Amino acid sequence: xxITDWPEDERPRERLLxxxxxxxxxxxxxxxxxxxxxxxxxxxxxxxxxxxxFGDLDRLFKASQPAFCEIPGLGPAKYxxxxxxxxxxxxxxxxxxxxxxxxxxxxxxxxxLRITLGKQQxxxxxxxxxxxxxxxxxxxxxxxxxxxxxxxxxxxxxxRCLYHNAASVILAxxxxxxxxxxxxxxxxxxxxxxxxxxxxxxxxxxxxxxGGDSVLSFAERGLx
Length: 224
What we know:
Layout: H1 12-19, H2 26-34, H3 43-54, H4 57-62, H5 65-68, H6 76-97, H7 106-117, E1 124-130, E2 136-144, H8 154-164, E3 168-174, H9 184-198, E4 203-211, E5 214-217, H10 218-221
Parallel strand pairs: 3-4
Antiparallel strand pairs: 1-2, 1-3, 4-5
């Protein structure tokens, strides 16, 4: 049965408009994104297939284009649409963060990092450059791959701090494995960057490790 044949108060779009997006299930939200189903399946049926196939929205959002297109009814156009939606969400979070006192709003920083780093398949080291009021002026993904003291160059971070006229920074990187426990190498790297940045009077306010939806703070752990 097509969604247009459903009672109006059961249709996902109408329910969203009346009750808000939070009232919908993952499949119903996906159905609104899909707009149409395939032969023999409504958009909601197709959305349920997607959730079952990937397990949850997180894995769906992380899926590569070939994996996404394995599901009948999905193709490059839908994959491109989904990536555009995710990128818009990421940018909206960036704009919101720039109006935030990052030092006094660690949860806002964590939300941003979950969006930007939590779904990455390779290790990425990012730096949030802050002004004198602890507001982010820029964010850069500076290094990729296995992160060690020898693969993250303090001099490059120093150069970017000077370029952005940063008063302080927040360091962040992800663990694609999902664990947020800091390694010995993570702690050595953090101390090395603190020492280098102290020479130009730039403070390291925190170092976050992101593992999926979990985020660990070095400051909260007493590791800074």
